[in-house]
Specification:
Order of helices and strands: HHHHHEEEEEEEH
InterPro entries: Actin_motor_Myosin (IPR051724), FERM/acyl-CoA-bd_prot_sf (IPR014352), FERM_2 (IPR035963), FERM_central (IPR019748), FERM_domain (IPR000299), IRS_PTB (IPR002404), PH-like_dom_sf (IPR011993)
Distance between the termini: 6 Å
Largest sheet: 7 strands, antiparallel
Pfam families: FERM_M, IRS
Helix content: 25-40%
Organism: Ploceus nigricollis
Number of strands: 7
Structural class: alpha+beta
Mean pLDDT: 78
Protein name: MYO10 protein
């Protein structure tokens, strides 16, 4: 999850995590130690984000313009454009290699500072850093929110499902936009094969996602572990929305109103 960018933290912390991973894998720094590739230690998207954006190419406004563009693309002008694109791609690859070398050097310097740290200690330090994120332990899903209490939709968000609550995050942001403990969820299920519905008190949230079944199964698991009533699976949508009786939930499961501050127990790997 760290390498895929699902643990929002600073670049300095990401470098420290990479150094701790090297210490865990190889023990103390040595020029003879086997060295993983950078993408096995550090999120690649962070390096790509440093590169300049690709120039915007405006669309052709009419058929005549598209025809002229097609004729030009087939001649000397098209060859010149292809050459420019190749040169630009080569420059971007060079920049990416430079950024990667700078980042790897910073990671190695941090690795050298861990001299004498044992593998269990390095692993414990790694997990302690990741646990600083309030969403630690949650399983994150990429979703597009179609009906939103926090702003106009659709919005690309992370749907975080943890032991205590379901939370919505803006990708890369450490604090949730909103969070719902299980006592507030009245029903959930599949509206269709790519739309997941979550009913929270008097609100219905619709998420476009390719992982409808995975989300429903995980919610069922947490509800069952809390002693709650199991709701229908997404492939068996109810004819009418089922209701989750609040009395079946253990006392104290729902935190007091306000920002979610609870950390779910360690239940998933973030390395």
């Amino acid at each position: 999850m760290v390498l895929r960018g699902y643990v929002p933290t600073s670049e300095e912390t990401l470098q420290t995590l990479a150094a701790l991973r090297l210490q865990s894998l190889n023990s103390d720094f040595s020029t003879h130690a086997p060295f993983p590739r950078l993408e096995e230690l550090f999120p690649p998207h962070v390096l790509h984000a440093r590169l300049p954006p690709l120039p915007h190419r405006p669309p052709a406004k009419c058929r005549g313009a598209r025809l002229r563009a097609g004729l030009l693309a087939g001649g000397l002008w098209g060859q010149a454009l292809a050459k420019q694109r190749a040169e630009r791609d080569q420059r971007l690859r060079g920049r990416l290699r430079e950024e990667g070398a700078i980042t790897m050097a910073a990671i190695v310097e941090k690795w050298k500072l861990l001299q004498g740290m044992g593998r269990p200690e390095a692993m414990a330090a790694y997990v302690a850093l990741v646990r600083e994120w309030p969403g630690f332990g949650s399983t994150l899903f990429d979703v597009d929110l179609q009906a939103s209490p926090v702003g106009p939709g659709p919005q690309r968000l992370w749907l975080g499902i943890g032991a205590k609550a379901v939370s919505l995050y803006k990708p890369g942001e450490p604090e949730p936009l909103d969070s719902f403990c299980y006592g507030r969820i009245s029903s959930f299920g599949a509206s269709d094969s790519s739309t997941f519905r979550l009913s929270v008190e008097d609100r219905d949230l619709l998420f476009e996602t390719s992982q409808v079944e995975e989300i429903a199964q995980l919610l069922n698991t947490y509800l069952a572990s809390a002693g709650a009533q199991r709701l229908p699976r997404p492939q068996e949508p109810p004819t009418s929305p089922p209701t989750l009786e609040p009395t079946v939930l253990p006392q104290g499961l729902c935190p007091a109103p306000g920002p979610w501050q609870h950390q779910p127990p360690v239940g998933s790997s973030h390395s």
